[in-house]
Specification:
This protein has 213 residues and is mainly alpha-helical. The protein contains ten helices and no strands.
């Protein structure tokens, strides 16, 4: 691993994998948030979209990866789409559950205060759903790493998944272990970032627990 870093061989591959994970996660979170909100508000949309989403989610990602590579090529686009798929589902489901668990009395209060839909979203729905949304993102981050690596292992020109395949073909155990260790630390690092964000934003939750105790 020290040789790979000192020679600069592995750094570009790390950056490419990180780019795929971060871009895919960003797009997946936004899509999951939007679709989850729409499905929570409009039941007929949920009945139309949910079966398709479940089919895509339950389909083995290793079987979808070749299709995306054939359609989008060996670049990062096919890997980003794969990451979007694995990230979107937990975020979307958590958003639906969060919106539907908001107490009706809260909506009644906002109605009495003559709040419009934008105010209800920013002052009620978004804060109330943030805890479950962060939980969904934390779960999705670990899956995002897996999605990116699967796409790279099936077909790629660069990335840590590509190094795993290359190491396997050339019987380079050091390259394989280095890639696995770095991927594990990337997943842990991204998870901890959102864990810190959750603690910073939801500081009131810890305060409430301490007060209750």
């Amino acid at each position: 691993m020290a040789k790979l870093f000192s020679s600069g061989t592995i750094v570009p591959h790390i950056l490419i994998t990180l780019k795929e994970i971060l871009l895919g996660t960003l797009i997946g979170v936004l899509l999951g948030l939007v679709l989850g909100y729409i499905m929570a508000k409009i039941r007929i949309i949920e009945k139309l979209i949910m079966p398709l989403v479940v089919i895509l989610q339950t389909a083995p990602k290793i079987s979808l990866a070749p299709l995306f590579i054939l359609w989008l090529g060996l670049g990062i686009e096919s890997k980003i789409v794969l990451v979007v798929l694995v990230v979107m589902f937990p975020v979307m489901i958590n958003e639906v559950l969060a919106i539907r668990t908001i107490d009706k009395n809260v909506y009644d209060l906002m109605s009495v205060l003559k709040s419009n839909k934008i105010q209800v979203f920013f002052y009620i729905e978004l804060p109330y759903s943030f805890e479950m949304l962060i939980s969904g993102i934390k779960l999705a981050m670990t899956q995002a790493v897996t999605g990116a690596v699967i796409g790279e292992m099936i077909g790629a020109k660069a990335g840590l998944g590509y190094l795993l395949t290359l190491g396997s073909e050339t019987y380079d155990i050091s390259m394989i272990l280095s890639s696995v260790i770095i991927l594990s630390f990337i997943g842990l690092f991204l998870y901890e970032i959102f864990n810190i964000l959750e603690n910073k934003v939801l500081y009131w939750k810890a305060t409430d627990i301490n007060t209750t105790n």
